[in-house]
Amino acid sequence: MPDPNDLSCTPTLSQLKGYDEALALLLGQAVVLTQVETQPLSAALGRVLAAPVRSRIDVPSWDNSAMDGYALRAADVPTPGTRLALSQRIPAGSVPAPLQPGTAARIFTGAPIPEGVDAVVIQEHCRADGDGVVVESEVRPGANLRRRGEDIAAGAEIIAAGTRLLPQHLGLAASVGVAELPLVRRLRVAVFASGDELVMPGQPLAPGKIYNSNLFAAQGLLQGLGCEVVDLGIVEDSLEATMAALARGAREADLVLASGGVSVGEEDHVKPAVERLGSLDLWRIAIRPGKPVAFGRIGDTPFLGAPGNPVSLFVSFLLFARPFILKRQGRSDFLPRPWRVRAGFDWPRPDKRREFHRARLERGPDGEPRVVVHPSRSSAVLSSVVWAEGLVVLPEGRSLQVGDPVDFLPFSELLS
Q1: Are 329 and 187 in contact (CB under 8 A)?
Q2: How confident is the model at residue 155, as a pLDDT?
């Protein structure tokens, strides 16, 4: 085991992988799942679409009225004040007869347009007059008509493969008559937290022990991405127990995710265990927090190791595990989209590593949003990620002043 007091064990900055290089390496190993399952719309929310959805029909399927009013021929109303007899009433869902020349039809929103009609006048511009109607405005041909196929043409692609399905996608699919969707199989992820100091919430907290927050944070993050979680629980600090957990996870899942045990301490057994069972392709990245992030394989199963400090786990999951998982799911939007905003803080002493600091948006004196940062940089202050609304990207080696542009990664983007 390495001597923790031996500084030669600590890699220099030049030995660390840069963030961009590490992410590219990771994504290059993300093989998209090919197994597809068909599910009804009611079971598709949050899942990833495996193949494009195409419309089977024109939407609308017929010319229809955009408003409640009166359907007529524009030529039959040469001037405002013209009176037309009413020849029929057309509610939504009915099938109208052709319009008789010189007459109007009472019509309602969504109802089919009769043959011969070229305009609908809204009811606010008309006055009922016995068995007729007086049109009190000028009439333009085409007014208040929805034409067949105006929204969607039959055969058009309406939802792209790789889309994470939201309620609006399900509504759109239903609107063209699609009842079932082809979905990418859920990614199975085996997760465990290592450490003899860990106890489960609800148990007595003995001296020297801490509650296991990482397991629940990791499970929540995975479930938020639509993964199926294989819970391996707490793993004791021994090489044998760590190897057993890794081997089981590799058998039962598509990805193994571990928190803790990936540094160089005498009780950090994950790295040597992975190297005995398979290979380690990535270890230690020039970021803060989350430097000891590991990636490798146990047989054919990918492995991701996150630091044991709770903030480091949370941040490194969002930066590395999330895009890796999304790409494996076939998602087309696996990289986060930063917001470009102004800094509401000074940063006079930058780190040599790229920093992803906990931050949130507040209104500046000019009323525009500014990013403010949490006062603590400690990776053990888990309350900071509840306080925060996202992560601000602090470039390596660069100082900042209030008003400088920065990239902000909102949790609304990172947690789905």
Answers
A1: yes
A2: 96
Strand partners, 354: 287
pTM, rounded to two decimals: 0.85
Neighbours of 378 (CB within 10 A): 12
Let me know whether 225 and 204 are in one domain.
yes
Whole-angstrom distance, CA of residue 114 vs CA of residue 71: 8
Three-state secondary structure call for residue 254: coil
DSSP result, 215-251:
HHHHHHHHHHTTPEEEEEEEE-SSHHHHHHHHHHHHH
Residues 177 and 293 in one domain: no
Let me know whether 304 and 214 are in one domain. Answer: yes
Quote the CA–CA distance of 265 and 273 in Å, as a whole number. 14
What single DSSP character describes residue 318?
A: I
Residue pLDDT, tens place only, 289-317: 988 888 999 999 999 999 889 999 999 99
CATH number at residue 49: 3.90.105.10
pLDDT digits (tens, 9 = 90+) for 170-188: 999 999 999 999 999 999 9
The CATH number of whichever domain residue 139 belongs to comes to: 2.170.190.11
Instruction: Please give the structure tokens belonging to residue 290.
Output: 């989350």
CATH number, domain of 410, equals: 2.40.340.10
In single-letter form, the type of residue at position 302 comes to P
Residue 342: which region, alpha, beta or left (left: phi > 0; alpha: psi -120 to 50)? beta
| Domain shared by 178 and 140, yes or no | no
How many domains would you assign to the chain? 4
Q: What are the structure tokens assigned to 140, written together?
A: 């333009």
Domain that holds residue 167: 43-58+153-184
Q: Which residue, 13, 26, 12, is CA-closest to 353?
A: 13
Closest Cα partner for 269 from 245, 299, 253? 245
